[in-house]
Amino acid sequence: MPKAAPMTPIRRRKLIYSYAPDWALTIVLAAFFFSLDKVDGYRRVFSLEDSSIRHPYAVHERVPNVALYFICFVAPFLIMPIVNFITVRSWWDFHNSSLGLILGLSMTGSLTQIVKITVGRPRPDLLDRCKPPPGLTDPPYGSTDWTVCTQTDNGILRDGFRSFFSGHSSMSFAGLGFLAYYLAGKVHLFDNRGHASKAWLALSPFMAASLVAISRTMDYRHHWQDVLVGSLVGTFFAFFTYRQYYPPLSSELSHRPYSPRIKREDNDRAVLPTHIDQFNGQTNIGNRHQYSDSTDDHFELAGTVPRPPGPGRLENVWKQGAGSPDLSQEDVVAGGSANIQSTSGGAFVPLRNPGTTMT
User: Fold this and answer.
1) Which residues are CB-neighbours of 175 under 8 A, at least 6 positions away?
2) Which of 71, 224, 263, 336 shows the greatest Cβ crowding within 10 Å of its Cβ?
3) Where are the transmembrane segments (predicted)?
4) CA distance 316 to 173
């Protein structure tokens, strides 16, 4: 197997420029997440007779915010390099895992804060935070608002209207969920063989995240719906960001990260990419639309998985079918970019199987 070409200064510069927006986005989202914490959001009306918000206010939480940051970020950030060293020993794997983890947490945190301050759902301990005057009752045919509260600490009162959805649940499932997917990929959990040890290892982060989520109901910080939705949101973003930088867990190369999304330099290509004509079975050299399924290390960085070929530049994709009345949406979806040929006039027409009868 040919060895990968050495990293040139030009390619290294292109690599940095290619992923700089990703890191910038994570930093902006993280700053946005922390900036929303002091915002006075919407505060829903409530009933003084509602038993679901009459629980005691826990001064000391089982999982405070500092512990949450260690659980959802520090722990995965330290564990993944250790797994990397034991398994693939790849600096690019370290880059992808770190970027995916931070991006998932920042996206989860930003969405969580936005929903919290706009929904304004009372927490289960709201009345204990509010401290309404003794003997106060709801107005006839109405509800009570936060202005009746005698609580002098605005921070405690403001936080009392941020029940939906649980930030501890979403953040813990986003961070530990990403770690779970990372471990599942490294041990090839879905290799159709079935190993209990692999299942326990890969799912253990989800168990830890579940304990964090359950603790929020024990402290009467959240209703069960808040915890459930937060857990689902965190799991979704963990999977979403993992799949941006890693192949499917069912892949035979699930232990490797995706290769960089920049093209190799021409003088680095030892072997030309090949294109398999799916209609006549012929091999065409140099076609850039659909590469073979080769997973040799010389394709990109050593120890990475080649990214699936995309549809091309967006401006070209958007122009597909322009000026061609014979090209329908069904042709584009069914045929894909491999079945579309560019004409001299700039329009795209579908390439049909010779055995297909046109009506």
Assistant:
1) 71, 72, 73, 75, 76, 101, 104, 105, 209, 234, 238
2) 71
3) 16-36, 66-87, 99-119, 164-184, 196-215, 227-246
4) 39
- SS3 at position 328: coil
Q: What is the identity of the amino acid at 105?
A: L
Residue-level length of the chain: 359
Backbone angles phi, psi at 275, to 5 degrees: -125, 130
Q: Which of 136, 222, 209 has the alpha carbon at shortest distance from 176? A: 209
Percent of the chain exceeding pLDDT 90 equals 58
**Three-class SS of residue 26?**
helix
pLDDT digits (tens, 9 = 90+) for 101-132: 999 999 999 999 999 999 999 999 999 999 99
Nearest to 121 by CA among 148, 170, 161: 161
Tokens 């003794």 sit at which residue? 134
Supply the residues annotated as catalytic.
168, 222
* Sign of the torsion formed by the C-alpha atoms of 24, 317, 248 and 3: negative
pLDDT tens string 24-58: 988 888 888 888 888 899 999 999 999 999 999 99
Q: What DSSP character marks residue 193? A: S
CA atoms of 29 and 237, how far apart (whole Å): 14
Q: Cα-Cα-Cα-Cα dihedral of 200, 206, 207, 208, to 10°? A: 120
Q: What phi and psi, each to the nearest 5 degrees, are found at residue 64? A: -70, 175
103 φ/ψ sector (left φ>0, alpha ψ -120 to 50, else beta): alpha
Query: In sequence order, what are the beta bridge partners of 348?
Result: 342
DSSP readout, 130-183?
H-PPTT--PPTTS-B-GGG-----HHHHHHTT--SS-HHHHHHHHHHHHHHHHH
Q: pLDDT-derived band of residue 236, with 50, 70 and 90 as boundaries?
A: very high
- The span from the CA of 224 to the CA of 20, in Å, is 39
